[in-house]
Amino acid sequence: MDENDSRSCYRFASSMATVVLGFNITTSLDDKIQATVRKTLVYKFGDLLKEGHVYKFSSFGVVPNTGSYRATNHEHRLVFQMWTTVQEA
Q: Do residues 18 and 61 touch, judged by C-beta distance below 8 A?
């Protein structure tokens, strides 16, 4: 995956196999941030997001972007929750 490609969506397994879907988002300020969806929520978000579309997200977690794999250089990443909502803008 190219970290400069804001449209990339990738699947991976962490050491605990809890995060299996991730993607990069380009903000309105042209900044990139990583977002992840836990394995148990892939059914809800996995097919919802389409490359090249614009979305509005609400009710998600924001955590430090730490660990051995970092898709962006942003200091935080978004974590989708059961109550996260996604609307096409």
A: no
Percentage of the chain with pLDDT > 90? 18
Please report where in the chains the tokens 């090249």 appear, as a residue.
52
CB atoms within 10 A of CB 3: 13
3-state helix/strand/coil string of 33-89 = EEEEEEHHHHHHHCCCCCCCCCEEEECCEEEECCCCCCCCCCCEEEEECCCCEEEEC
65 close to 76: Cβ distance less than 8 angstroms: yes
Closest Cα partner for 15 from 70, 69, 63?
A: 69
What pTM, to 2 d.p., does this model score?
Answer: 0.71
SS3 15: coil
Q: How far is it, in rounded angstroms, from Cα 83 to Cα 70?
A: 25
Coil/strand/helix, residue 30: coil
